[in-house]
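[agent] plan:
  1. take the single chain provided in the ticket
  2. run structure prediction with default settings
  3. attach structure tokens to the ticket
  4. add a short note for the reviewer (M.T.)
[agent] executing step 1
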Amino acid sequence: MFSLRLLFSLLMLLGIVLTVTFSSILSSRDAMHELEELFDAQMVQTAKMLEQFYVNQLTEAQFEQLVKRPILFHVADSSVETFAQQANPITLSYEHKLSFQLLSNTGQLLAYSDSSGEETLTHFTQGYESRMIGGDLWHVYSLFSAPHQVWIVTAQRDDVRRELVSLIVRNTWHSPLIITPIMMCIMLLLTYYLFKPLKLLARHLDKRPAHDLTPISFKLPSELASMQKALNSYFLRIADTMMRERRFSADAAHELKTPLAIIKLHSDGLADVLLTQSQDVQQSTLPYIDAIGAGVNRINHTVEQLLLLSRVDAISALNRSECQLQHIIDNVINQLLPIVADYEWQINIPPQMTVNADPFYLELVLKNIIENACKYSPVESLITINAFKHEPVTLIEVIDQGRGMSAEEIVLAKNRFYRADETTSQGAGLGLSICQHIVSLHHGELTVSSVAPRGLKVSIQL
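[agent] step 2 finished; step 3 output follows
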């Protein structure tokens, strides 16, 4: 299951990274283009300044002297190689990476800087060109001064431009690298805040009792209001369906009680009449009368369970109070006296132990569980009832020595109308479901587990 919050954050982050990357690439390309134009313009300006302030001032005699003996402009040695290194007015950064030459119309040197040596920089064509000189790539600009028939050449090493571009690109990427993690944290906080209503709604629904189908009333963003409306509509439909189901169960049970009572009455009357008949007639007829009576009793038990289920489902509030647990157990044993006499009992309940519960419904739960323990255990087997109190929790256990239940059966045991063995099980499979509902109304927990070597333990935690 993927996280919508994480997916949203990653998409936002991806969008920011792509935007910053694209803009940084464009900025770097534009910066490189602008730098090329700036340096080219600088070489043109330098050449024109040399023409204006030096070449135009030369006399004929000075020109002849330069032809015979060119002037060398010495560039002081410096260890300064990059912008990151400090320079001073004497040893300026990059000075030895710039060069110029003045040449006569015939190609003879008149003046030059020693940064590029005496090798001619130009091919004697006006404009820009690139040349490899001394293992380095140089950008060269050549200007021909027609009045004096002099070539003015300015040059610049390529690594000057490359380093400046790399510095700009590096600075362009510094900010995104710092800002992106910060933006990620901000987006995670933002998505946490945006998805907080959903988490609150999920927590509220998770804590709701199973029987609570009242509409949700949450202050949600407009985007989630439609989901809340749909959930409320769904709850109302479920509540309406369950109400109809309860009404049907109650009506059906009430309608069945009268016919069952009539059948039982006539069955008992027929049995009394048969007592006046011959022994042969009694032996051939009484088994059928007994079968009718057993079937009526079984159906009558199912009807009572259905009526009890509809009553329990309709509970809105419990009348809880501090009640004596031993007194409740004694009442249950007395009600089940015809069947409990066939079993051995071990009851471990601390004297004067109390439990905060509705005594009527707690007695109903214990009666159902103890009756089941008797019903599914061998005659004369041991049934144990334990009670422990660890404030504020009370734990009640009923342990039998019956056949027990498999793990799959335990999972389904509390479902309505579930019976582990459809052929031999008695009842409608509603007992544990009713008990579970009553215990949940007490905000407690009912658990079923197997006991070694055989048997079943039903625990009630209140």
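[agent] step 4 note for reviewer: The chain has ten helices and 13 strands.
[agent] ticket updated
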